Automatic annotation (TrEMBL):
Region (Disordered): 1-29
Chief place of localization: membrane
Protein name (Swiss-Prot/TrEMBL): Glycosyltransferase family 92 protein
EC numbers for this chain: 2.4.1.-
Bias (Basic and acidic residues): 1-10
Any one of the GO CC terms: cytoplasm
Lipid bilayer topology: Single-pass membrane protein
Keywords: Glycosyltransferase, Membrane, Transferase, Transmembrane, Transmembrane helix
EC supergroup of this enzyme: transferase
Entry's localization field: Membrane
Transmembrane regions listed in the UniProt entry: 47-68
Amino acid sequence: MAISAKERKLSRLGSCKGSPGAGGGGLGSPAARGHRAAAAAGPQRRLFAALFAFLCAGVVVLGGVHVIGASFRPVLRTAWPSATLNAISFDAEAHQAGAATDTVLPSVQIRHAVALPDQILLILKDGSVLPTPDRFKCLYSPANSSVLRRPPLSAVSLPDGPSLVHCPAGPSDVAVSLSLSLSPPVAPLQWDRLVYTALIDSRDNSTVVFAKGMNLRPGRLGVASRYECVFGRDLSKPKHVLTSPVISAAQEVFRCVTPVRIRQYLRMTTGTNSKGDSDENPMLVSIRTKGRGSSTLPSIAQPEPLPRYNRHRKQKAHSMCVCTMLRNQARFLREWIIYHSHIGVQRWFIYDNNSDDDIEQVLNSMDPLRYNVTRYLWPWMKSQEAGFAHCALRARESCEWVGFIDVDEFLHFPGNQTLEDVLQNYSNRPQIGELRTSCHSFGPSGRTKIPKKGVTTGYTCRLAAPERHKSIVRPDLLNPSLINVVHHFHLKERVRYVNIGQGVMLINHYKYQVWEVFKDKFSGRVATYVADWQDEENVGSRDRAPGLGTKPVEPEDWPRRFCEVYDTGLKDFVQKMFTDPDTGHLPW
């Protein structure tokens, strides 16, 4: 008889529950259960015994290694070069050594990196407050290699601008970051092909763009129609940018129309006391060539509005200001500022071109209520003319006249007139936009050491004829192109310059000082269109020391050079006006 499926299933379940026997329930007798438990415990005891034996053997082996460790030292051989191992080892040791001092600061964020000839410049976001350079490291991330750590060359923070960190030049094609920053490594841009800063001029709704890489000729206007300005957060996406025509192009300065949408954006951001720097992708501006093969320069330039133009202002805050660009001139800065303050200069714009001396300490030691000095970080190499154009725009709203002179140049009035007299003579003549004054170049004057009382009293022998002249300009009357060469600006149409007689005003230029000072000129020059002293180019130029050549080797007769006329005019004036009658000391 056939058996149903349900009955077969029940039969299988019953056979799994145990053999039938007395007592039922399918669990079997107690003896049977004990036998099965003993059978199950046997493998467990064997597993425990094996585990115990393994642990004992481990103790013996470890003890043996410890005992023979002094005599047995295994040698590992690798195919990696020893230099690579040393670098990795050094990096690990440096990381362990720096772990105690490196503190991550979330506020420190890297905005841009620029590769200069001998270093890498890191530009941080506004609000990044840096500790002293000995508290962090520059990190280099080469491809397929370990991170390299090097101490920074310098770090500078100013209250009204971004902080800068100067890192040593690293390997090629390397990204850079900081040990105290959460910012990812940044690949540096090249300094000689870059839009590096920009200003918004509300007077004519234009944007003034400062750029390297277009190689325009000095002192001449370029063809503006060959270029256009490009605005956007990501300049690599043509559909997401705004373009505008270039009005003028000269040297490193391009002026273009500011698009309406950009003006609206800037009004919104400046209205909230923000530069838009908190954005991850800020608004940038660049220069693009037009036509076949057009290209856009890399840019880090965020358009910065100039002070608003006040059409109703009757008088500016300062009648006389001075703009200069310097590098490592701190030891002369105090004398230069105090002297010019006494003769009538009211405001100073100092463009610091990568100084690593005591300039910050010198400026902090001066009373800000007496000396209105602004230090502006200008790290761009070979860009003095662009820096002067930038300064002329920034000084325009507050300064009636601006002098463009160096820290080793001192205005001198050998007659009875003062600086105020000279300026008043021309302030009511709107067709005069520039006052040119001759420069007399002074030599070492027999000295071999830096004069303790300053340059104005220490050097008294000069060349007989003036070498060139410098300018005091009215920034309102400069040509919109802002062309300037050797401290002279192009002026607006129908505006002219005048030459001031040497008996009224001149400049003492302490150009050829003792060798200890003069040799620093070989480290590089800030002017764009003059060769560095070590370059084999224009060796006979007046911009060089005649007969010196290109090597920083002191000639035997250096203390006696450039001495044709003894001139103590400014020395006598300084001793009379500045000497403390009780101590005989000068204020610097």
